[in-house]
Amino acid sequence: MLSPEDPEFLLEATGSLVNITAGNLQQTSAVAEAGAIPKLVKLFPPSCDSSKEAILTTFGNMLVHAGYLRKLVIREGGLKLALDVLRAPEDHSAGCAEAAAWAVASAAKGGDAGFLDDDSESQTIAASIAFIRNQSDKSSKLFKETVKALVQISFYRDLTAEIIKSGITPQIVQLCAVEDNQLRENALRLVVHISAGSEDSVQALIDADCLTTLGAVIAERPRDRGIACSALANLARGTPRHARAFMESPLLPHLLQTLSDPIKALGCRAE
Fold first, then answer.
1. Among the listed residues 131, 161, 165, 167, the one whose alpha carbon sits nearest the alpha carbon of residue 149
2. Within 10 Å of residue 91's Cβ, how many Cβ atoms?
3. What is the mean pLDDT of each run of 10 residues along the chain (271 residues)?
4. Quick one: three-class SS letters along the chain?
5. Are 140 and 176 within 8 A, CB to CB?
């Protein structure tokens, strides 16, 4: 029987569970159906950092699978545990916090059928937004996984109201200019999502100097021009005031250059 009183054995056992649940659905389901989830939740608080990381990674391996298995992990407290860590990452090791963020991102992947109920989804959204708002280190794996979780939820749920209310719109716009390709792409996808919302959401993006940022993306980031143009198309459908801001922004010359010479603008070479 697993016990925190034998930390060495506990570490070996939780490490084995990570390896087993990293396999196919049948292997992962067997661990969950054997009653491992509530036992691991109970063992988490007194365990060492490495065992905590292994426990959260095990839950992440289970949460990757949508449907029954994911709902079982949520119902038996696996997702709640990961969210608790995400809410207070400073109380845990970096590895533990990163494993929690990855588990949350896994739970958000693949559509709303994966969530047990509206409450678990709402808690995931609130915890992710709060973390993005309060986190200063934008380069950490923890931060990137949390942004990814929000993006994955935004594919099937309108998050515009929550994002605008939280005040993180300027931070999301700033992330569109970072060097990390995946983080920048995820931030741009969130901007596309926000720009498709209400007039207030479009105004929030304009107030955050999104037009200038998108202009820089079009000018300097060939791989992201398609996503940036999707956001611009949404912004251009706003009110006359929004359209005027669009026309007066510094992005227009970059956009016209791309349209007039797409091969050069995209960094392509004619054969």
1. 131
2. 10
3. 70 93 92 94 92 96 87 92 94 93 85 63 89 86 90 84 91 94 94 90 92 89 90 82 75 65 47 40
4. CCCCCCHHHHHHHHHHHHHHHCCCHHHHHHHHHCCHHHHHHHHCCCCCHHHHHHHHHHHHHHHCCCCHHHHHHHHCCHHHHHHHHHHCHHHCCHHHHHHHHHHHHHHCCCCHHHCCCHHHHHHHHHHHHHHHHHCCCCCCHHHHHHHHHHHHHHCCCCCHHHHHHHCCHHHHHHHCCCCCHHHHHHHHHHHHHHHCCCHHHHHHHHHCCHHHHHHHHHHHCHHHHHHHHHHHHHHHCCCHHHHHHHHHCCHHHHHHHHHHCHHHHCCCCCC
5. no
Name which of 183, 188, 185 is nearest 173 in CA terms. Answer: 188
The single-letter code of the amino acid at 246 is F
pTM of the model: 0.80
Assess contact for 245 and 211: CB atoms under 8 A. Answer: yes
Name which of 111, 102, 32, 42 is nearest 74 in CA terms.
32
CB neighbours (10 Å) of residue 216? 16
